[in-house]
Design goal:
Blueprint: E1 4-9, E2 18-23, E3 31-41, H1 43-50, E4 65-73, E5 85-88, E6 91-93, E7 113-114, E8 126-130, E9 135-136, H2 139-142, H3 145-148, H4 154-165, E10 171-175, H5 179-190, E11 194-199, H6 204-212, E12 217-220, E13 229-234, H7 241-248, E14 249-257, E15 278-281, H8 287-300, E16 306-309, H9 314-322, E17 329-332
Parallel strand pairs: 10-11, 10-13, 11-12, 13-14, 14-15, 16-17
Antiparallel strand pairs: 1-2, 3-4, 3-8, 3-17, 4-5, 5-9, 6-7
Helix pairs in contact: 4-5, 4-8
Amino acid sequence: MMTTMHAMVLERAGAPMRLQERPLPEPAAGEVRLRVLACAVCRTDLHVLDGDLPEARYPIVPGHEIVGVVDALGGRVGELRLGDVVGVPWLWQSCGHCRFCLSSSENLCDTPEFTGCTRDGGFATHVLAPAAFCLPLTASQAADPEHTAPLLCAGLIGWRSLRAAGDRAPVLGLYGFGAAAHLIAQVAVAQGRSVYAFTRPGDTAAQQFARSLGAAWAGSSEEMPPEPLDAAILFAPAGELVPQALRAVRKGGTVVCGGIHMSDIPSFPYRLLWQERRLVSVANLTRQDGREFLQIASALRLRVSTRRYALADANTAVADLRAGRVNGAAVLVP
């Protein structure tokens, strides 16, 4: 019987992750243990690695886009059974009793726990998760963990950002065309929206990738779109893009900041915000977001672009993501 597991451990911010052998953990009441089938690498993992998130605890095992199979049960785990394949997202658990949890806003919980940030995550062979926060997968999603893993954060935060952009936004700009944008662009196109993709200057590969997924236009983030945008979503964690996006949206338009961390927003003239333009942020996710989006992703049969890495190559995957060498999502497969 297996008694140990392996994990890529981040001892402190700024250090490389190191592969460690650890005792196999036992789930407490309300928890399940998962054997990790795949874990995608998210830009938020970079912020954990760099020490940008004050809530992060070290040492930590990063990774919060997990697909795993239940291989041990604690007590009181509801309907989950051994052998079930489920998803584990960024929100590891919320308290359930603060004003936000009681008003269907568990994403704003006062005392949350976050996978791969305050609780060990999925850059490992095994992980613990609260049964109540594991997300159900369709049969096709469970059968393809590599292409399902990016849905669990890139897809979910993209979905929440798209909803924040509003239904009355037929012309949509996406700033930063990576894991999240390449998924939500497909949803937006399926909804009948025109999608304009903004990439790093000179990144013609990402621009071509965006056009291949249905974008009506793709260009540099320094350019203005061919027509005013109804809404823009910023996935790139670059605060200097906020004034640029405000310039690009029409009167009454919305700019959505979709990242958990962003560099400082520079000062800008009030006229960019005037005429009822709105600047809003999206924080975390709810379980309802997860259930909704996973059903939509299954129905639309989204094309999920991935690059596979072995668990021991997590540092390489992170470096490739940071340098913009990954079209779509990097995924660790133990």
